[in-house]
Amino acid sequence: MTLIAILPGDGIGPEVTTEARRALEALAYDLTFEEAPVGGAAYRACGHPLPEQTLDLARRADAVLFGAVGDPDLDGLERALRPEQAILGLRRELALFANLRPARLFPGLEDASALRPEVASAIDLVIVRELTGDVYFGEKGQRQTATGSRQGYDIMAYDEHEVARIARVGFETARKRRGRLCSVDKANVLETSQLWRDVVIEVAADYADVELSHMYVDNAAMQLVRNPGQFDVIVTGNLFGDILSDQASMCAGSIGMLPSAALNTDAKGLYEPIHGSAPDIAGKGAANPCAAMLSAAMMLRHSLARPELADRLEAAVIGAVADGIRTPDLGGTATTRQVGDAVIARL
Ligand code: NAD
Ligand code: IPM
Ligand code: MN
Fold first, then answer.
1. Domains, the chain, with CATH or none
2. pLDDT per residue over 134-170, tens digit each?
3. Which residues are catalytic?
4. Which pTM was predicted?
5. Domain of life here (predicted)?
6. Residue 220 Cα, ligand 1 centroid: separation in angstroms?
7. Which alpha helices (DSSP H) does 31-159 contain, by range?
8. Residue 256: CB within 6 Å of ligand 1?
9. H-state helical runs in the chain
10. How far apart are CA 41 and CA 46, in angstroms?
11. 66 Cβ partners below 8 Å, 6+ apart?
């Protein structure tokens, strides 16, 4: 029996996760599901955003389906207790260093993109984001300087082995696609990035079939809206990847369309939409469940070895959206449940 951990979390997390779970239930009959609280919901229920039982379930499960965490009412908590620590803790504890964030414009969504249709239609890329290092996990704090002013700091650091292993994921991903890898950094200013670039070039020796290029992150942000079709695979650090993937989502129509897979070298993975808990629309049935459903498809492909079911689920999402069954973020009037129903009807 294959065990899927369902961690719905906060805001729209439970709404979109429900639809993704229903799709998995409709597709594969040999899955069992176990649910646990995470994020603000877990803090309210048990006093901690990542309770021991939730982490234990994530460890026992074959794969994790994660919704979103974040609750503006809990932003005043000390950092260790904030909802966001749950997802950071899961990534760290499960050593999920490789985050795949594909962005592609589905048929019919040209008008939903923030770009002109002819520019938008070319987008078909994967951002390979490093997920367990960088400024996210370095030493951080607030202190007083010698002159008595308050100072905040977050150390940005990468070890060469961390860069090398994510670079390999980038090259392998590019090899299975159009064979082009763009490494995004800020090597003109940051030593972290200079090491990143040096190590990526070293790893490239093993991938002569992949065409490697380098781009500064500020230029990459510009190029993503100027001509997103130029990118095949982007490999980048944790912070740059976070920012660029939200940007890429609007090229593809909506942040509600982008799924992700957080992977280690084993089959275990955590799958989540790239969006957050969207407190502004939570509880209204307006959340787009496509990103969560496409994350479930990535789970079928990467953790459950069921690529044919992944294809069916992706095709069903593409079909529902193409037929105009869309939530308001895509200019439609459908509810979260109606999109879920439309996808399941097309499986
Ligand atoms: P957000 O992604 O939650 O929302 C940004 C905007 O996009 C909002 O206007 C929201 O309504 C819209 N949006 C997001 N997902 C949508 C969907 N599926 N359908 C339709 N519209 C959608 O980002 P934010 O507002 O910066 O953050 C809100 C909270 O979520 C914060 O607490 C933040 O820390 C947290 N967050 C969590 C994750 C995660 O759990 N992985 C990711 C990002 C943000
Ligand atoms: C994401 C989110 C998280 C991140 C936050 C909630 C910690 O923005 O998954 O993209 O920055 O990685
Ligand atoms: Mn993000």
1. 1-96+258-347 (3.40.718.10), 114-251 (3.40.718.10)
2. 999 999 999 999 999 999 999 999 999 999 999 999 9
3. 136, 186, 218, 242, 246
4. 0.98
5. Bacteria
6. 23
7. 40-46, 52-60, 84-93, 117-120
8. yes
9. 13-27, 40-46, 52-60, 84-93, 117-120, 160-175, 191-204, 217-226, 238-251, 290-302, 307-322, 336-345
10. 9
11. 7, 9, 13, 17, 38, 87, 90, 270, 271, 272
Per DSSP, the three-state class of 236 is: strand
* CA contacts within 13 A on the Cβ side of 315: 9
51-78 burial, b for 16+ CB within 10 Å, e for fewer? beebbebbeebbbbbbbbbbbeebeeee
First CA to last CA distance, the chain: 22
Give the position, in ligand 2's atom list, of the atom nearest the Cα of 68: 6
Give the closest residue (by CA) to ligand 1 atom 33: 70
Which amino acid residue places its CA nearest to atom 27 of ligand 1?
Answer: 276
Residue to probe by mutation, ligand 1, list 277, 337, 339, 343, most atoms within 8 Å of CB: 277
Q: Are residues 292 and 334 in contact, defined by beta-carbon separation less than 8 angstroms?
A: no
19-48: pLDDT as tens digits = 999 999 999 889 999 999 999 999 999 999
What one-character DSSP code corresponds to residue 106? P
Task: Report CA-CA distances (Å) from 185 to 47, 68, 124, 188, 221.
Answer: 38, 27, 21, 9, 11
Q: Is the CB of 87 under 6 A from ligand 1?
A: yes
- Taking CA atoms only, the protein residue closest to ligand 2 atom 9 is 274
- How far, in Å, CA of 294 to CA of 291, rounded? 5
Cα 203 to ligand 1 centre (Å): 35
How many helices (H) and strands (E) the chain has is answered by 12, 12
> Of the ligands numbered here, which is closest to the C-alpha atom of 75?
1
Establish whether residue 162 lines the binding site of ligand 1, counting it when its CB lies within 6 angstroms of any ligand atom. no
Alpha-carbon gap, residue 43 to 332, rounded angstroms = 35
* ipTM rounded to 2 decimals: 0.99
